[in-house]
Amino acid sequence: MAVGPDGATAVSRLLMPLALPLQGRPRTSEAAQNPAARAPQDVARAWWTAALEARLPPGALAAAGYFTRAALTDEVWLPLARRSTEHTPAQDNADKVAERAAAHPRSPDALLLAAHLLTRPAVPQYDADVRRHARTLLKAAVALPDAERPAETEQRRRALIEAGEVDLAQTAAPD
Fold first, then answer.
1. pTM
2. Rounded Cα gap, residues 22 and 172, in angstroms
3. How many angstroms separate the Cα of 107 from the Cα of each of 34, 47, 96, 166?
4. Can you give the pLDDT at residue 28?
5. Taking all residues of the chain, what is their mean pLDDT, rounded to a whole number?
6. Which of 74, 111, 163, 164 could bond to 152 as cystine, CB 3.0-4.6 Å?
7. Which residues contact 5 (CB under 8 A, 6 or more apart)?
């Protein structure tokens, strides 16, 4: 399917139905201990991982953004979302992806994910929110003690500058 006409779009559209049943499901330890509650998460993670490893054409992972509100734990979601944005920076729900990543300033995956979202073609309805969440993430990462600050923090700052947030160029880089 991926190599056919409009293959990237077709594959991308397969990811959305996998994510939608997970939205609104709890991300609590109770759900993690209940096999019936966990099954859709396992299926979604398996398909998402398979899509990431399939060497799909550019754009094929745009609908991975629908996993933003899915009931996947952050430990599972962050690396998968980062890998998806490395492959396809123009994510559906990019603002929601950036918002969820902004809650994890200690995570290298969150910082890299946000940096990739900034490199995508501008989508006016999401662009301002993506930048706002990326700035929030950078502020929180810079505020961490040196020993806890991920090395990717400076990369995040550079991505924001390259995306047009020029005032960050005058901010001293973290030590």
1. 0.75
2. 42
3. 27, 24, 17, 24
4. 47
5. 78
6. 111
7. none
